Amino acid sequence: MKKLEKIDLFNVVLESGKQRPYVPLFYQTFGQPIGSAPIVVVNHALTGNSNVTGENGWWNELIGETKTIDTDYFTVIAFNIPGNGYDNNFGNLISNYKDFTIRDVARIFWEGLLYLNITDVFAVIGGSLGGAVAWEMAALLPNRIQNLIPIATDWKATDWVIANVLIQDQILNNSDDPIADARLHAMLLYRTPQSINQRFQRSKFLDSSVFQIENWLANHGIKLKNRFRLSAYKLMNHLLKTNDITRNRGDFSTIVKTIKASIHIVAVNTDYFFIPEENKATFELAKAVKENVSYHEITSIHGHDAFLIEYQQLAQILEPIFNPQKQQNYVSA
């Protein structure tokens, strides 16, 4: 695994007005040295982390040498959302998770980039929670990003998202086996009935009354429990309901008009969490006030998780953005 680096941030003032005297920000870099190539910031999803490529990299199919996001041409930076536990330092976990918002995370990521002497980035990309953070990063510093690529996400938490965050929070705070039980519910949000039914077809294990779908869900719960901390799950889940780039700012059209980045919205046609209709509405609003905005849709039976499954479709969407031939004129700052 690529070495985990740390930036020490002090006296971090949260959106709520509360202050954190110290926030460690962990990150990994891949590809070219900082300052020698265009910067791509990759934001992880709810149970993800900064290890985007290489050994156990969760986006190996898209990021790496000769891949769509080619580390021979780009510097890739991925931060860990503070409190996600990927550093394995349990002292850095966050118990007061409701103090934090996505805006706080986006601001902390920008502080990390500025610490690394990075003021402008070629692209910020992320799926689900990571895409929501990307939207907020663009709203915070609208002149610093060339390409904003939010995937299977939205710039706001809809009532549907807020409702499911509440259910997850209730499970996480009241279950005897909170991580595993919450994961059971979450997996059914991330997939579709068609995907589940097609895969398992009501099959059982031989000489057993256990359905394979039951075993599949149970294994997902066990796996997450073995690698994820309860406080991290509570925080990541809570952040989803705080997603709203218009909060205390004005309407969406006014805000998106200030964002200089080319915005490439990527939805999934069967996403039951961040539904494509909301992304289409976002596109219509954005294109009314901004020219450099596009809408793309992954076609899949698998629902929300298609952004982690349908790599070929996603690569085809991203290729025109990350084609290295377009980066030949890059000059180091």
UniProtKB/TrEMBL annotation:
The segment(s) forming the AB hydrolase-1 domain are 38-160
**What Pfam families would the database entry show?**
Abhydrolase_1
Q: Name one GO molecular function term.
A: hydrolase activity
Instruction: State the name under which the record lists this protein.
Output: Alpha/beta fold hydrolase
Q: Which domain of life is it from?
A: Bacteria
Q: Keyword set for this entry? A: Hydrolase, Transferase
